[in-house]
Every structure is written in structure tokens, then in C-alpha cells.
Amino acid sequence: MISVLFVCLGNICRSPMAEAILRHKVGEAGLDGKISVDSAGTGDWHLGKIPHEGTRRMLDQYKISYAGMKARQVASSDFETFDYIVCMDDSNATNLRKLPGGEQATVLKFMDLLPDHELREVPDPYYTGNFELVYELMDAGCQVLLDKICQEKL
Ligand code: 4NP
Fold this sequence. Notes:
The protein has helices spanning 14-28, 53-61, 78-81, 90-98, 125-128, 131-153; strands at residues 2-8, 35-41, 84-87, 108-109. The protein is an alpha/beta fold. InterPro entries: LMW_PTPase, Ptyr_pPase, Ptyr_pPase_sf, Tyr_phospatase_low_mol_wt.
């Protein structure tokens, strides 16, 4: 099983959107049981909460399930558990590096999946309110990530 962890700050807006979208694409590609997907936040304010209303609205619109998803905080053990760790912005990467084992961990930046896009970080819709933009970025970037995993590992 190849495992992917998306990381943002609160684990209620961006990383749960990515988790739901990639899991949906994995299912569409017939790869359930080959690729597992999870998400976590570097912060602990929203532990146990379901995704933000804005994230749920976008996922509902595109008929993508977020059933059972609850916010959790990232832990050092995640560095050993996951094959791919993908963060949303530079501050997420900095926060991950500060955790024990974080210096040695390989952390990808989501926007590096979309090198031609002018944005280099995924804007936080908790502050911008722009969940549509995040959906567009997640949809495009998760497809690139899925193709990358298939090439590299499957
Ligand atoms: P996320 O957005 O990192 O995309 O889940 C945020 C959610 C909550 C907070 C910040 C960002 N917060 O400060 O509570």
C-alpha cells in the first residue's frame, strides 16, 4: 500500500479537501487498496472536527465523499508511516521541519505539483474565503500526484 499524507495548518480546509479529492480519484482509477490517503494539521485547534463548511460545500458540489473525516494533528510518527507527505504552504513545511525527525523527512510542496502555476503556495481559504480556487488547485494537483505515484511506485 502506498500512503499519502496532506498537511495544512488546521486540517479543516485545504488538506481535507485534498484528501477527499485524491481518494475519489484513486477510486475512479480502480486503485482502492493500492493507495491510501490521509490528512493532518500542524495546529491543534480543531482536533476531531469535520471539514470546514466551505470545504464541505465544494465537495458536495462535486459529489465527493468526506464521510468519517475528522481533524487530527500531525505527529513525528507520520514521517515513518507515509510514503508521500505533501504540505500546502511554506509555513506548514517550516512547522513540519521543527518536529522530531522533521529535518530528515522528505516533504513535498503541493504547488510543486503545478510548476507552471503563478501561485507557489495554496492560499488559506480560512482567511481568503476562496474555496473555489482551492478546489481547482486540489483537483489539478491531485491528478498530477496520482500520475506521479503510478509512475514511481505502481
Ligand atoms: P487550513 O485552514 O490550514 O487550510 O485547515 C485553517 C483552518 C483553521 C485555522 C487556520 C487555517 N485556524 O487558525 O483556526
